[in-house]
C-alpha cells in the first residue's frame, strides 16, 4: 500500500530504528495477548500497528498528547517526557512477519493513527477479558518475592498451593511463566516492556 499520502513515514532504513515518541505521534503498547483481543474488537477502526514478537508487545501509533491520563493494566503510553526521550523501535515499512519486529497492520493512507477513544474502549475490554479481574492491591512476585503494583496472574510449575490460590509475577518476571488462563484468554504468552529511554 502506498504511503505517499501520509503526513509521516519512517525514514529509509535497513533495520529497526529507534524514533522519539511525542514528535510525530505517541504510541500505546500492550502485551500481545491483550492486543490480539483489542484488534478483534477494533476491526477496521485500528490504525497502523507494530508487532514485536521478541518481547511479545504490540504498538499502536496515536496522536501526540491524546492518552497521557490513561491507566490500564499492562498498557503503556509512550510519549515525550520532561526529562527524557522515549524511543520506539520502528521497522522499515516493507517488513512483514518474516521479521521479529514488523508492521502487523501496515502504514497506509487509511491506516495511520488510531483514534484514542476507540482504542481505549477496546483495550479496556481486552484487559478485562484476557487478564481477568484486577488483583486486590499489591502482590508478591513469585520470582523475585518483591511487592508489585501491577501483579500478573501466572502459572508457576511445582508450587504447593491451595486450590484456588493465584500466583502472581511482576511485569519484569511474568514472561518467564504462562499467564493463568482467564475463560476468554486467547493465548498464554506473557510480555515484558520494550521501550527505550535515554536522557
Average pLDDT, all residues: 81
Helix share bin: 10-25%
Radius of gyration: 17 Å
Order of helices and strands: EEHEEEEEHEEEEEE
Strand order of the largest sheet: 5-2-4-3-7
| Shape field | globular
Instruction: Give the number of helices.
Output: 2
Strand content: 25-35%
β-strand number: 13
Alpha carbon gap, first and last residue: 36 Å
Low-confidence stretches: 181-199
| Structural category | alpha+beta
Largest sheet: 5 strands, antiparallel
What does this entry look like structurally?
- 14% of the residues lie in helices and 25% in strands.
- The protein is built from 2 helices and 13 strands.
- The strands form 4 sheets. A 5-stranded antiparallel sheet has the order 5-2-4-3-7.
- Helix 1 (32-42) packs across helix 2.
In short:
By secondary structure, the protein is α+β, with helices and mostly antiparallel strands. The protein is built from 2 helices and 13 strands; from the N terminus they run E-E-H-E-E-E-E-E-H-E-E-E-E-E-E. The longest helix is centred in the middle third of the chain and has 16 residues.
Amino acid at each position: 500500500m502506498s504511503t505517499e499520502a501520509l503526513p509521516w513515514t519512517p525514514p529509509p532504513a535497513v533495520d529497526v530504528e529507534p524514533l522519539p515518541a511525542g514528535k510525530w505521534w505517541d504510541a500505546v503498547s500492550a502485551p500481545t495477548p491483550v492486543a490480539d483481543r483489542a484488534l478483534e474488537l477494533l476491526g477496521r477502526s485500528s490504525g497502523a500497528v507494530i508487532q514485536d514478537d521478541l518481547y511479545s508487545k504490540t504498538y499502536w501509533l496515536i496522536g501526540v498528547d491524546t492518552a497521557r491520563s490513561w491507566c490500564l493494566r499492562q498498557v503503556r503510553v509512550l510519549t515525550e517526557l520532561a526529562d527524557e526521550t522515549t524511543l520506539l523501535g520502528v521497522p522499515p515499512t516493507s517488513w512483514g512477519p518474516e521479521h521479529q519486529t514488523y508492521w502487523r497492520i501496515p502504514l497506509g493512507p487509511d491506516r495511520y493513527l488510531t483514534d484514542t477513544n476507540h482504542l481505549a474502549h477496546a483495550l479496556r475490554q481486552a484487559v478485562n477479558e484476557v487478564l481477568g479481574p484486577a488483583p486486590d492491591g499489591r502482590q508478591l512476585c513469585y520470582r523475585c518475592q518483591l511487592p508489585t503494583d501491577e501483579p500478573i496472574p501466572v502459572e508457576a510449575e511445582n508450587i504447593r498451593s491451595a486450590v484456588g490460590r493465584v500466583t502472581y509475577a511482576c511485569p519484569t518476571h511474568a514472561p518467564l511463566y504462562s499467564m493463568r488462563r482467564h475463560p476468554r484468554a486467547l493465548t498464554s504468552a506473557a510480555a515484558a516492556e520494550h521501550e527505550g529511554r535515554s536522557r
